[in-house]
């Protein structure tokens, strides 16, 4: 998930969001979006609740974009394995 935050609210939003259930990792970013938030839930209903009832209601959140990963890849691990085979 990506989030735009009101100017001056970055630290406050980051601090509150990292304590929320389902948040696995959160980092500040430069550019159009201010935060990258990695979350994990067992169902779409739980994700919906998080997006609509929690993160978007935080004071300072202006906009969110939710990205759902279809597959996790570990490019670094693949490179290491392929080098071992050479």
Please outline what is shown here:
This protein has 86 residues and is α+β, with helices and mostly antiparallel strands. It has helices spanning 10-17, 44-53, 75-85, and strands at residues 2-5, 23-28, 35-39, 61-65. A hairpin with a 6-residue loop joins β2 (23-28) and β3.
- The total number of structural domains is 1
Class of secondary structure makeup: alpha+beta
Radius of gyration: 16 Å
Per DSSP E runs of 2 or more residues, the count of β-strands stands at 4
CATH class: Alpha Beta
Q: Report the major sheet.
A: 4 strands, antiparallel
Beta percentage is: 15-25%
CATH architecture heading: 2-Layer Sandwich
Mean pLDDT score: 88
Contiguous low-pLDDT stretches (5 residues minimum) are none
SSE layout:
Layout (H helix, E strand, L loop, with lengths): L1 E4 L4 H8 L5 E6 L6 E5 L4 H10 L7 E5 L9 H11 L1
Antiparallel strand pairs: 1-3, 1-4, 2-3
